[in-house]
Amino acid sequence: MKIRVDAVACRDPLSCRLCLDRCPEKVFGTYPRKKRGPDREARDWVVFPMLASECTGCRECLDFCPRGAISLG
Amino acid sequence: MCEFCTQHGEGEKWYLVMENYSRELLSQEGRVEFMEDFLVNFEKDKGTSLARLDSLRSRPKLYRFFRRKAEARARAEHWGQVVPIEEIIEIVDMLDSVVRMPCVCRSLTTGRKARYCFGIGIDPHSILGKYPDYSHSLEVLEREEAKELLTSFDKKGLVHSVWTFKTPYIGGICNCDMDCLAYRAQVKSGILNTMFRAEYVGMVDWELCNGCRRCLSSCQFGAVRYSHTMKRAAIDTRRCYGCGVCRAVCEPGAITLSPRRGFAGLSW
Q1: Is residue B49 in some structural domain?
Q2: Contact check, Cβ <8 Å, A14/B189
């Protein structure tokens, strides 16, 4: 299954986390785009499909995502 | 015995050998820098490389090639083994200090900071203290405090494991469930192995089992089965990781761990 997460539409995933929490197959992961630096917090976290091959196509994430940032193809 | 026991344990269990926690070992091969880079960039580095490997699953030859490569690298750099609570306590008794820190796996898989990981033998303040994401959640634990916490994790059903930073140096104890990256990669999806099972497997004493089925829900590996006809639980030894957390919920004490090496048909 090809999963796309629109990084522009998905803002501040760390305070939302619905896709991370609710995906039954736990397909998603999240990482900071800007690396951690000394005295600097990691910023701009993005959600990405980490184990896309586990996706069963249940389409729950499409319903849960409040910003419509996820698409399946 | 797992292959690390032969290579790094002089035939004993490698994670009970004091040398594998020594400061001398830590100071060699750029381990301190490796640990810092590993922990600070974990989410992006490990997350994206697992996603890359996953994308190759539909191309078996390429997938097998890159999986082998990734596993060889993991064995040399960061490999784990499941260890039951008794031996985790033995390990903590050998160490000078334990530092509780946020789990990098759960940061990647859940977007949350959860302090289930222990840095051992070293002072992560010197490694992670300069990173504000980590610095305020690091906590040095007294030995007894660490043991109590680990025992409470065991009762909650968290699986303990030890992890190397440039094998054979052991720098971490993890307390994991399905949000662990090793679990997602090795157990849930089976795309990449990153740890050995424990040196044990669980066995149910048929005479003692009362058929309460608590062990079924405590097993993270789906290894416990239940027979309605016999009113007994049974452990599927091929699935069992030997973590032993099922014992904590077994009231009649029917589950014990047996050495894995006694089972000719089982591997690690």
Answers
A1: yes
A2: no
Per-residue pLDDT tens digits for B86-101: 999 999 999 988 999 9
Question: Is there a single domain that holds both residue B190 and residue B230?
Answer: no
Predicted pLDDT of residue B136:
84
Q: Give the A window 42-61 contacts with B, CB below 8 Å.
A: 42, 45, 48-54
Provide the 8-state DSSP code for A65: -
The reply to whether B103 touches chain A by the CB within 8 Å rule is no
B106 and B184 both lie in a single domain: yes
For chain A (73 residues), the mean pLDDT of every run of 10, in chain order, is 92 93 96 89 93 95 94 91
Burial class of A39 by CB neighbour count within 10 A (0 to 12, 13 to 18, 19+)? exposed
Instruction: Check A20 against B110: CB less than 8 A apart.
Output: yes
Range of the domain at B160: 3-196
Q: Which residues in chain B (172-211) have CB-CB distances under 8 A to chain A?
A: 178, 184, 188-189, 191
Q: Whole-model pTM?
A: 0.95
Distance CA B122, CA B22 (A): 9
Give ipTM to 2 decimals: 0.96
Instruction: Note whether B112 contacts A: Cβ–Cβ < 8 A.
Output: yes
| B34 and B100 inside one domain | yes
CATH assignment, A3-72: 3.30.70.20
Instruction: Please check whether residues B64 and B94 belong to one and the same domain.
Output: yes
User: What CA–CA distance (Å, rounded) separates B167 from B21?
Assistant: 11
